[in-house]
Structure to design on (403 residues):
């Protein structure tokens, strides 16, 4: 008899952002005139940079002529994009990589989820708490998380990130084989110093663990002392995989392009993880569309860089508006300085879903309840800085009025 993957039956409710979308849809059907401001999911609102659009138009034109038309591309990415990534994101920061260590994809979310394919189901997985839910849910789907006890997964090692430890995780106890880290952090908006990251690299090398490092938000780092890549840390090439995305950097949330770096020095059980990931991707994925990769390449031109920097500055200004507005209204806020997320305590006595509901009903502002990111997210709410500037200021004013 056919058996389904019963791990899916263990998943509680729906994916966090689908649940939020469902609640917002119900509210908006019941209140069709409500002017809802969405500061929930971290979706960009500025259009793609002009340099990207021009490059995409040119690539579309190429696709319309027999001489320049492209069919299947190289599954792991065109060299023109891999080279641009290598030069600008790594070489410029003193990190030496080769083209085949950079594997282009349709985004960091898919890669963070799919990477589990190359690891055994028995590995022990450590996640920060609170955490981007994709790491948890995809391990649960694979059968690596155990059972859900109503609050936590029995086989995951949770690393609490609380106010008293500066929202920074301690080394896992018990030891873990796979460790997910995300810096700048989603959802808390924190960053990790070199010293902090060195602690993780040393641990992983000593234990033979692998760090799965999500740096989708590195473009928001303003502090020159904060590393943008785990590979800026000595020893990282033998213990880390890094996920990057054009979504938040250059507005590709709807266009889809990212990449994963798996160094050739990363070997476990005498097997190259780079080769395993390349094998997985070339078998299950046919590559990111040519037009999109040309658009991503344009991010690295002088014009592209200037336009991307202006967009990031716009969002960081929103973050400052949210931070100061909410602090002025009496809330305790964190993050939002080197990251597009603001992590904010709920008012006394309100749990995070109740505060979410209150803000939706009374201020018509969508946020993300901290509890959706894990047990230690309870008592917090996350706001994104990716909104429109005017709408963001309005949302802050409305929230202050509700408080
Ligand atoms: C978020 O809001 O946490 C992100 O936008 C989700 C994602 O990037 O998949």
């Amino acid at each position: 008899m056919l058996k389904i993957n019963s791990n899916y039956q263990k998943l509680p409710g729906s994916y966090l952002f689908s649940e939020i979308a469902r609640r917002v849809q119900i509210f908006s059907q019941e209140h069709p005139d409500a002017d809802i401001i969405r500061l929930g999911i971290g979706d960009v609102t500025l259009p793609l940079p002009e340099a990207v659009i021009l490059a995409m138009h040119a690539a579309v034109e190429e696709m319309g002529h027999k001489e320049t038309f492209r069919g299947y591309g190289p599954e792991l990415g065109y060299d023109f994009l891999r080279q641009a990534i290598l030069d600008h994101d790594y070489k410029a920061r003193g990190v030496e990589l080769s083209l085949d260590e950079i594997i282009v994809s349709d985004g960091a979310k898919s890669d963070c989820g799919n990477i589990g394919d190359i690891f055994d189901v028995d590995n022990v997985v450590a996640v920060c708490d609170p955490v981007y839910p994709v790491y948890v849910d995809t391990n649960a789907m694979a059968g690596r998380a155990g059972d859900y006890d109503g609050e936590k997964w029995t086989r995951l090692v949770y690393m609490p990130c609380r106010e008293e430890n500066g929202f920074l995780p301690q080394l896992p106890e018990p030891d873990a084989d796979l460790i997910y880290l995300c810096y700048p952090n989603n959802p808390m908006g924190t960053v990790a110093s070199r010293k902090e990251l060195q602690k993780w690299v040393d641990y992983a090398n000593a234990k033979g663990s692998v760090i799965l490092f999500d740096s989708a938000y590195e473009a928001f780092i303003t502090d020159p002392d904060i590393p943008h890549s785990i590979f800026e840390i000595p020893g990282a090439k033998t213990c880390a995989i890094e996920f990057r995305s054009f979504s938040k950097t250059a507005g590709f949330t709807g266009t889809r392009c990212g990449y994963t770096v798996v160094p050739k020095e990363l070997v476990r059980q005498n097997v190259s993880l780079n080769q395993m990931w390349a094998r997985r991707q070339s078998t299950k994925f046919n590559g990111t569309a040519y037009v999109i990769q040309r658009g991503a390449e344009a991010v690295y031109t002088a014009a592209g860089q200037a336009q991307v920097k202006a967009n990031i500055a716009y969002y960081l200004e929103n973050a400052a508006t949210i931070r100061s507005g909410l602090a002025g209204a009496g809330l305790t806020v964190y993050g939002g300085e080197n990251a597009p997320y603001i992590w904010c305590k709920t008012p006394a006595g309100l749990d995070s879903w109740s505060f979410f509901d209150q803000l939706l009903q009374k201020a018509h502002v969508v946020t993300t309840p901290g509890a959706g990111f894990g047990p230690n997210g309870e008592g917090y709410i996350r706001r994104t800085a990716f909104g429109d500037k005017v709408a963001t200021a309005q949302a802050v004013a409305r929230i202050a009025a509700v408080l």
The longest strand covers residues 240-245.
